[in-house]
Design a protein that fits this description.
Distance between the termini: 66 Å
Largest sheet: 2 strands, antiparallel
Helix content: 55-70%
CATH topology of the largest domain: Rna Polymerase Sigma Factor, Chain: A
Shape: elongated
Strand order of the largest sheet: 1-2
Strand content: under 5%
CATH architecture of the largest domain: Orthogonal Bundle
Structural class: mainly alpha
Order of helices and strands: HHHHEEHHHH
């Protein structure tokens, strides 16, 4: 029995897959504008690589595999010291302070917030600070497995590690996170 060979139809990618790819991305990076950019980058990369498409996977599966690499690259960039210096955020939209800020130096948003959200935000910040204090590989593996929910095999292949090594890294990351959170959040 012959295996069905899939074909590409780039003219239909946006109406067929844009929403799906966006929802997939936003659930992993939680930044609306960055998610849109990554989906756009995915379409652009797919157009550039369409001659390499072998038809073994469906069009959507192929686009998702490109998008996953874009998401991994995004996290690699923001998790490196050089990457943090390159990621800029627009904080003010008008006035004399209008412009982009380097992510590490963005002033905190001081708008009034609901009391219960303040504690959640502080917890999120404390947890993110603890994740950022992990060794780079630990932080990357922890984010990919726990936050982004990548499959073990996918992480191992991407980072060229064994599954037992992955679980050792996850265990060590969780142990260090627990200690960091105990020191910086629970002892407030």
């Amino acid at each position: 029995m012959a295996v069905k060979k899939h074909t590409l139809n780039p003219e239909k990618w946006v109406p067929l897959y844009a929403d799906y790819l966006f929802n997939y991305t936003i659930s992993r990076i939680n930044n609306h504008d960055q998610a849109k950019d990554l989906v756009q980058d995915t379409f652009f990369a797919a157009l550039n690589a369409k001659d390499n498409f072998q038809g073994k996977a469906s069009e959507r599966t192929w686009l998702i595999s490109i998008l996953k690499r874009k998401i991994i690259d995004y996290y690699r960039k923001i998790n490196s010291a050089k990457g943090k210096a390159e990621v800029k955020m627009n904080f003010y939209s008008d006035g004399e302070l209008e412009g982009d800020w380097i992510e590490e130096r963005v002033p905190t948003d001081w708008n009034a917030e609901i009391e219960k959200n303040i504690e959640n935000k502080e917890l999120t910040i404390a947890l993110e600070n603890c994740i950022n204090s992990l060794p780079e590989k630990y932080a990357m593996v922890f984010r990919m497995k726990t936050i982004q929910q990548f499959e073990t095999e996918e992480i191992c292949k991407e980072l060229e590690i064994t599954s037992s090594n992955l679980w050792v890294i996850i265990h060590r990351a969780r142990t260090q996170l627990r200690k960091c959170m105990e020191d910086n959040w629970f002892k407030k």
